[in-house]
Specification:
The protein is of the alpha/beta class. The structure holds 5'-O-[(S)-butoxy(hydroxy)phosphoryl]adenosine.
Length: about 675
Amino acid sequence: MSKKPAPRANISALLQEKRVFKPAAEFSARAHVKTFAQYRKLWLESVRKPDAFWRKQAKAELVWQKPFAKVLQWKEPFAKWFVGGRLNASANCLDKWLETAHANKAAIIWEGEPATDGRAGEERVLTFRQLHREVCRFANVLKRHGIKRGDRIIIYLPMVPEAVVAMLACARIGAVHSVVFGGFSAQSVADRVQDSGARMIITSDGGYRRGAIVALKKNVDEALAITDANGDRPAKSCEKVIVVRRTGHEIHLAEGRDFWWHRELDYVDANCPAVPLDSEAPLFILYTSGSTGKPKGILHTTAGYLLGAKMTHKYVFDVRDEDVFWCTADVGWVTGHSYIVYGPLANGTTCVMYEGAPNWPEPDRFWRIIEKYRVSILYTAPTAIRAFMKWGDDWVKKHDLSSLRLLGSVGEPINPEAWMWYHNVVGGGRCPIVDTWWQTETGAIMITPLPGATPTKPGTATLPFFGILPEVVDDSGKPVPKNTGGKLVVRKPWPWMLRGIWGDPARYKETYWSEVKHSYFTGDGCRQDEDGYFWIVGRIDDVLNVAGHRIGTAEVESALVSHPSVAEAAVVGRPDELKGQALVCFVTLKTGQAATQDLKNELRNHVGKEIGPVAKPDDVRFADALPKTRSGKIMRRLLKQIASGMEIKGDTTTLEDLSVLAKLSNPDE
Ligand code: WT7
């Protein structure tokens, strides 16, 4: 066993915040952008003359089947980029490489979770040529099942290469994929089937997670039973389910509805030309949490998104031909879309894809993988970094990580202590760290250092990427002075911005373009320091960031009140050392229901079942009543203070019944 890491004093974290890490000369010398002055010049050019800048970039970076006529058509808040152009995302990721030396280069190096020799996992390598062939074949399967341009397809798969193949096969024929993270529940799948009007689900018998099997196909059966029972399944919705065989356990196949992936391949050939699609053809929908109970289907389109994924991957990770890139996110999140699939493949980069958990069979699985494949760029999340810190340095130090040259972080603010650990223990003090801020909605990275150019400071995502104009503003939309907190907005449209919320233009306008005039509102709080660096302080709406997952408190509340014993629920966040934030639920029960430990467990599982394990509450507390204002609004501010064990501060005069507070602060447990 490893020894526990030495406790770290808070004071050191505070001191380190002031530290500045300049890019090493050797790194800068070989980088795409070599100096801060060069970054500055390009950025200024990109925001002063966006039309010329994007025209040049889009021509240089993408392969067009028909050139675009106009760079941007902007009717706030609706953007059309590269108007009139035609291209295909799968052709840009695959066909582009066929006639080059990249054809036989590994596109995906996949490692399965089960450890075959007790340590290392099963391995599959797909070259660009092989991946192209698989994508063409599967695209033909889709066509054989009647899938047409514009049809939506739900992909609900574990981290297996078929997930990438399925995404690119959709892109090849103009179908719109909506990947649903394999950790989501049957109910979540049902909601997304309904909202997207998907015609097909691509799933697998199951997936592996920490040695156990996650029964994905069973969830799909349940999801379709839910939509059938609701009568919400429009005609022609989810007529077909394609099933990848992964775990091999027994599943039910519904005659005429469900088909094995491998069997279907027998009926098709590998000839499938990429369809020339409009620049603005929908590429994918990805559901994310907002401040209401209903997940939002974030829509991204073809050309602008692809340009963003490709350019940010190239410049932020400073990729070179010989790199082995590993983004540890799941393809079910936007990070996986942009930095496992579209960005790296469009750049011809070799990617590692790992199926399972970081601590399976032991807490050194990541380091083992880096050593084995000589990974040179690692992109992971602060919550994972904190878990590794907890598991101890020895697990890391056992492995040769000398292949690493660059480290990335995404998903939530990285605390300086974790930043320093990542830098020293994982990076051996020699790798720059790129702390990248972005969102499902922004499609690709927005605020980030460029590793050869930008001096970094632990805890800040630093400065905007090319063409991005972020600002920190007050409630009236005016920029705030340096070192003052405010709302983070983006002042100008950018090619990889969301184009809308699926089926709900009014909500799109309301959520993102109404809070601050003529600006995209991110929902994040932020301050800029004296150097103009952006320090994200977290969400300011009712959305929590739990282990890097955005979870709407309203969603969890609506799951809780759907339980027959629950009368009312309020969900708030409490700071958590590992997860960043933890979910604390205050619940009042219907008359006659006993407040037992069993019921607490049942409610936790109920939320897990309704939304998925990522949303399982950390803490359920029963209360006789919730603190409310006289107008009936739950006072979350107070609940937050109670949840974090803080002294209750601020105005309580609007509280309807003061005795409620006292009871909540002294729970009987
Ligand atoms: C929210 C977006 C970006 C893909 C993964 C999450 C937080 C993300 C950072 C960062 C501080 C960050 C923000 C943002 N966030 N990256 N580097 N520093 N905060 O995508 O689920 O859409 O969540 O994650 O709060 O709004 P998402």
